[in-house]
């Protein structure tokens, strides 16, 4: 299936922004839906954002609507998650997912 590699995580203060990136197999861009999930300490995995194969249809968890934006750049073979106005409750490991294949995850920490 190919490896998914997330990048762009780190630590930020509440109200700040981060942009996560996910690179994956070339052939999946434009052909599959991509998703971002997250898992906070002591909690289960939560779907955060979804983008359809065409890159126009998107869906978000209620907790991130208006703050997060998912997008794809087919030329760069990359999926992005722009996260603005971050809150402490956004602290989690974030995963890129396509066709039931998961990346290793990347830590996002938001401090107050």
Name the descriptors:
112 residues, 0% helix, 7-stranded mixed beta sheet, mainly beta
Could you explain the architecture of this structure?
By secondary structure, this protein is mainly β. The protein has no helices and eleven strands. It has strands at 5-7, 10-13, 18-23, 34-39, 45-51, 58-60, 68-73, 78-83, 92-98, 101-102, 106-111. The mean pLDDT is 94. The strands form two sheets. Strands 2, 4, 5, 6, 9, 10 and 11 form a seven-stranded mixed beta sheet that branches.
Helical amount among residues, as a percent range?
under 10%
Order of helices and strands: EEEEEEEEEEE
Number of alpha- plus pi-helical segments: 0
Instruction: Give the tally of β-strands.
Output: 11
The end-to-end span amounts to: 39 Å
Q: Topology, pairings included?
A:
Elements: E1 5-7, E2 10-13, E3 18-23, E4 34-39, E5 45-51, E6 58-60, E7 68-73, E8 78-83, E9 92-98, E10 101-102, E11 106-111
Parallel strand pairs: 2-11
Antiparallel strand pairs: 1-3, 3-8, 4-5, 4-9, 5-6, 7-8, 9-10, 9-11
Summarize the structure.
The protein has 112 residues and is mainly beta. It is built from no helices and 11 strands.
């Amino acid at each position: 299936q190919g490896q998914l590699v997330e990048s762009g995580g780190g630590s930020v203060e509440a109200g700040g922004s981060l942009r996560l990136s996910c690179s994956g197999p070339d052939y999946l861009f434009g052909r599959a839906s991509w998703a971002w999930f997250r898992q906070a300490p002591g909690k289960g995995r939560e779907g955060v954002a979804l983008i359809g194969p065409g890159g126009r249809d998107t869906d978000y968890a209620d907790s991130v609507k208006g703050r997060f934006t998912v997008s794809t750049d087919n030329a760069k073979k990359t999926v992005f998650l722009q996260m603005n106005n971050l809150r402490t409750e956004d602290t989690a490991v974030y995963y890129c997912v396509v066709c039931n294949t998961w990346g290793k995850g990347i830590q996002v920490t938001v401090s107050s």
